Request: fold
Amino acid sequence: MGIPRELALEMYRRMRLIRRFEERVVELVNDNEIPGITHEYIGQEAVAVGVCAALRPDDAITSTHRGHGHVIAKGGDVRYMMAELMGRETGYNRGRGGSMHIADVQIGVYGANGIVGAGCPMACGAAYVFRRQGDRVVVAFFGDGAINQGVVHESLNLAAILDLPVVFVCENNLYAITTPIRSVTRNELWRRAEAYGIPARPVDGMDVEAVYGAAVEAVARARAGGGPSFLECRTYRYSGHYTAERNLPHVRYRTEEEIEQWRQRDPIRTWRQRMLERGWATEAELDGIDGEIERALEEAVAFARQSPWPDPATALEYMYAEPMEGIPARGWR
Amino acid sequence: MRQIRYLQAIQEALYQEMQRDPRVFILGEDIRVSMRGTTRGFVEAFGPERVLDMPISEAAFTGFATGAAMAGFRPIVEYQIPSLVYVAFDQLANQAAKMPYMLGGQVRLPITYLVMGAGAKNNAAGQHSDNPYPFLLHAGFKVVLPSTPYDMKGLLISAIRHDDPVFVLCPAALYALRGPVPEEPYTVPLGVGEVKRDGSDVTVIATGHLVQTALQVAEKLAEEGIQLLVWDPRTLLPLDREGLFRVVRRTGRVVILDDSNRTCGFAAEVAALLAEECFDALRAPVQRITRPDVPVPFSPPLEQAVLPGAAQLLQAVRRVLEWKREPSVVVP
Reply:
């Protein structure tokens, strides 16, 4: 799988942006500048970036509650993301969604989702429309925890029987909150898709090149009318299930050694190393990208901080297409 | 005007809207063969790509419709029985109902959910006899419950053309009802109720097939000189508040006749609303006739015992007519 140098650099940039965005989010949560619950994507960057690099801008994705990485990988703007996380009017969802529901429908992000696996059938519906209109493709991201959700299985079957252009991307980070995947399933996750007649395989989710290669193949099949595919990307989240988990000392479900072992295979560091070895970039060039990212993030934080809060008087807006006179969301005429 | 049956009105509305707008398509279980007849002839007319037979996967095909709507199409989802709504409830309550709001208005979801066989008919027992609209109203869905073939065609066309998710419930008890229906497409606006029979003594607010029950009771009581005003909200959300208040103020005596569970049901909402907004006009306590909070039993006499009907309406009408307000005791 040949990757053009420009794309290789862009993949580095996006992985790095996701990593730094998430680290900044953790700081802002701890400083109480971001309310609510956030779920970091740190460690899994190669999956979102490798998959989205195989997509066209007009393709779509559905995401998970751990969705920041997918949105950035698909081309989301960190200013609007940060503003949404801070609950501001300028955020992607105008402060109505927050971290778990970030969406940018214009660039094909059909929504992060707080219900595990719930994006899969929506991906199928969008794929049905795309297939009738042309050759666009949809990627459904979900975690290993979703593999036991009925609706995911129903969606796999639906995609198979309708030959829908969907790529199912299971991000197996080994834990559904605290529950190890090996304690809730007997077989390998990708084998379940095979049972529905869907080509499926495991992928090294810490290697952006491997993910990209697998995604290119799956996306090409979908685009050519060959139907759905299933990729089980084996990856790891370095941080807890959600930001505040570190404040729960009684919550222990994995060892420091295990985390450290996965860190040794860090997708960003290894990709940087590989690019240097191949002579695709110099240290200075990559440092330059890092610097741009820091500036972009500080600009995003400043943008969010300066953005106004939503007007409480608008709390009922957006519920319905046609606001109902007087008291729109209450449903009275 | 020609007379057609309620079921034919459904078929005609669906057919005409699919003809009018290529983005409209229909999906559901067994709809190509169309056991009920609502989509009879559709595969021949529109092709299999627009008439999608779904596997028995209610959650998946409900979410499928949401995704298709986000991508710009206008899906119609046909549920063969109302209890299937519960099977798909995450995709309804957490997804479709919340998506436009949570996304800050980035998407509209022009989805029509057609719920066949709503309510109890012919001893179908606990899982085939529900009227799930209180759940749907609570989730924020717009809900339509037509009581005549004319209303069905016009309201269903409105629902399909509307940019929000709309539930259209089709009471099983009305399938065979005949009535005048224009051949050409027309709309009945959402959120506008209708006086089905004018009267000056008691206002009966009836929903779905119970509108027909109320009209029959009204005929009977007219022989005794009691004039019932029968009002059909037609849309449960948005509710025609002004229309409701008007008909309540005409008589000051109200009976609500609604075929769903009592607790937190539609009748409870209407009664509360009248207490808030029309207290001054009420001349008797508002009476609610509903189902009790039990599953519908199988055996015919048991089924009869839990379903609201004419006998309870007669009783309730007499009760509100007999009511005399005691003078208030003023404590100095």
Notes: Chain A has a mean pLDDT of 95.
